[in-house]
């Protein structure tokens, strides 16, 4: 197998980082006011904003995780790219323009302005930080995975690199600076993930094309050495002789070992050399699927698959409109019409990108099956070009992919950091310092430091899985708050706070249990791993019922607020009414 030349990979990654620093420095030169740092003075054009949103939205989960999930679990995982894209359609129809007309800087601004309650603002602030950090951790871990896969560097090197670059970019220029960086990084990521696809597909067709797709479980195409990174229980369906150097079933082994069908506990660090044609063993987390099981919906070996699919769809479809780093982008548009045009453009840009990851997942099953055994399926995008194309061309393509992966981590981490730093500076640090810009920069340090430490301390759950958990929390908290706050005038502060606690709070608890304890089987495991199907309806029901029970808390002036949210700016200007809230204040 041809691996990426470390020198080429390092050069490509360094070039990506330098480009981000240079473009960010240019943005820093024109960032002077609070509006520049928070919302780029609300002057970003739809085209530039759509590219920037694509840059920050297409994260490690999109660049690495989708392909890894398709490789491991099959076609059911295509709901991830579908859901990421459809979420923007709902955002376009229901939220984009009214949210821009609110004139807020952050989601807590919107919550307090709509409901007039510091308590709701505090709850929204807490959830923004939780969702932002849940989303940031896999970006950091993905950077560590990338450097380890392409140059053999320790995981902490990638984590710290992304943390430092993002800290400098965001603290230096805020939203105006990272808008330029993220727009550039979208197009870099698109080229980096799609260009190798043409070569990979050509090599696959030369190797027999569809004829190499088999109904049998994946097999090692050549003699393959696998070093187990973690303790694992391997399940073999067929007998095989393996060269072993390590510990199996608590017994030290060195040399040829004959494995019969069954399960074997293998210690971390054990080296296994499988002969060509051997079936890839399954593990506790990644079963060995036949071609039919891999390619047929609801057959991926997970418990309660139908519930998991529907819950995942709910999380992804509705979670997008509750992601703080996505929503803050719509505050940067000049008006509501521009916000809708931005969302429409994003649909096209995101959909174009998602054509590529499933190709890597499908072909990785044939040409990089060892990733199924080690559990590092997220690395398939990084390793497939070298494995299939080979030679100098494969090494060069691997370097291009590594550059695109690093761009994904940097752009998404930058957007998340701005959203988290924005609420921390306003609601936690701001009243302790007289300078808003100094508060923003201090908040940026906190927003980056915590997820870096958590990424260094914790084990990766898989980048797409981690991001999916963040979507579940967003769908169970900010989605109900935004939809009811924008479209239902009877929402009260008590109702909103109760719904945030019920939906967002319980979804967060389920997510934490999944992360700390790990995935489990059965209904309990399914409900905890995919909470959106029960936590989001619960949040809606609680918000509505409690609001109906507290009618005296309906904010005064709610009709005027609703008119402003839903009145096009052209009509407002015709009436001479200053309702656009460009100063970030409610009437």
Polypeptide structure, described:
The chain folds into two domains: 6-207 and 294-575, Sodium/glucose cotransporter (Up-down Bundle); 224-279, no CATH class. Helices cover 67% and strands 6% of the residues. It has 25 helices and six strands. Strands 1-6-3-4 form a four-stranded antiparallel sheet. Strands 2-5 form a two-stranded antiparallel ribbon. Helix 7 (107-115) packs across helix 20 and helix 21 runs antiparallel to helix 23. The termini are far apart. Mean pLDDT is 82; it is low at 573-587.
In helices, the fraction of residues equals 55-70%
Q: What is Rg? A: 24 Å
- Helix-strand category: alpha+beta
Strand content is: 5-15%
- What number of structural domains do the residues give? 2
Strand line-up in the sheet with most strands:
1-6-3-4
> Which fold name corresponds to the CATH topology of the largest domain?
Sodium/glucose cotransporter
Mean pLDDT: 82
Supply the CATH architecture of the largest domain: Up-down Bundle
Number of strands: 6
């Amino acid at each position: 197998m041809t691996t990426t030349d470390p020198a080429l990979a390092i050069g490509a990654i360094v070039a990506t980082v330098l480009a981000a620093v240079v473009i960010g420095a240019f943005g820093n030169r024109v960032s002077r006011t609070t509006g520049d740092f928070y919302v780029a003075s609300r002057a970003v054009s739809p085209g530039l904003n759509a590219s920037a949103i694509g840059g920050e939205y297409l994260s490690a989960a999109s660049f690495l995780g989708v392909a890894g999930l398709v490789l491991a679990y099959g076609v059911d995982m295509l709901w991830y790219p579908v859901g990421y894209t459809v979420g923007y359609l709902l955002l376009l129809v229901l939220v984009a323009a009214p949210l821009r007309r609110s004139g807020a800087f952050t989601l807590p601004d919107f919550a307090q302005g709509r409901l007039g309650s510091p308590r709701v603002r505090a709850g929204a602030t807490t959830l923004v930080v939780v969702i932002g950090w849940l989303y940031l951790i896999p970006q950091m871990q993905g950077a560590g995975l990338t450097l380890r896969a392409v140059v053999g560097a320790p995981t902490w090197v990638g984590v710290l690199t992304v943390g430092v670059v993002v800290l400098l970019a965001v603290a230096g220029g805020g939203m105006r600076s990272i808008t330029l960086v993220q727009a550039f990084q979208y197009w870099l990521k698109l080229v980096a993930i799609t260009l190798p696809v043409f070569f990979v597909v050509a090599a696959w067709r030369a190797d027999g094309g569809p004829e190499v797709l088999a109904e049998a479980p994946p097999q090692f195409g050549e003699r393959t050495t696998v070093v187990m990174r973690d303790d694992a229980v391997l399940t073999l369906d067929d007998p095989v002789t393996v060269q072993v150097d390590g510990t199996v079933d608590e017994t030290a082994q060195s040399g040829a070992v004959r494995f019969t069908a069954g399960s074997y506990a293998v210690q971390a660090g054990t080296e296994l050399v499988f002969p060509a044609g051997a079936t890839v063993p399954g593990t506790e987390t990644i079963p060995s699927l036949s071609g039919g099981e891999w390619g047929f919906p609801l057959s991926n070996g997970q418990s309660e698959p139908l519930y998991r699919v529907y819950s995942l769809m709910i999380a992804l479809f509705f979670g997008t409109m509750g992601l703080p780093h996505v929503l803050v982008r719509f505050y940067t548009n000049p008006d509501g019409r521009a916000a809708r045009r931005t969302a429409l453009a994003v649909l096209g840009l995101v959909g174009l990108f998602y054509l590529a990851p499933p190709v890597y997942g499908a072909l990785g099953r044939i040409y990089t099956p060892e990733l199924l055994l080690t559990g590092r399926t997220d690395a398939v995008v990084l390793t497939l070009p070298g494995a299939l194309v080979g030679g100098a061309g494969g090494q060069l393509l691997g370097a291009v992919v590594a550059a695109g992966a690093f761009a994904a981590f940097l752009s998404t981490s930058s957007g998340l950091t701005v959203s988290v730093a924005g609420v921390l500076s306003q609601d936690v640090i701001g009243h302790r310092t007289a300078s808003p810009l100094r508060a923003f920069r201090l908040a940026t340090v906190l927003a980056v430091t915590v997820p870096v430490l958590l990424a260094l301390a914790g084990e990766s759950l898989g980048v797409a899985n981690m991001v999916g958990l963040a979507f579940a929390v967003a769908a169970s908290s900010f989605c109900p708050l935004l939809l009811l706050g924008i479209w239902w005038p009877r929402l009260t502060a008590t109702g909103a706070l109760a719904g945030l606690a019920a939906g967002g709070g319980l979804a967060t608890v389920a997510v934490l249990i999944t992360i700390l304890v790990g995935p489990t089987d059965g209904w309990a495991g399914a409900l905890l791993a995919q909470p959106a199907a029960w936590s989001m309806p619960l949040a809606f029901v609680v918000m509505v019922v409690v609001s109906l029970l507290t009618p005296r808390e309906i904010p005064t002036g709610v009709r005027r607020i609703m008119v402003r949210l839903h009145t096009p700016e052209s009509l407002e200007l015709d009436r001479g009414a200053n309702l656009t809230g460009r100063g970030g204040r409610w009437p």
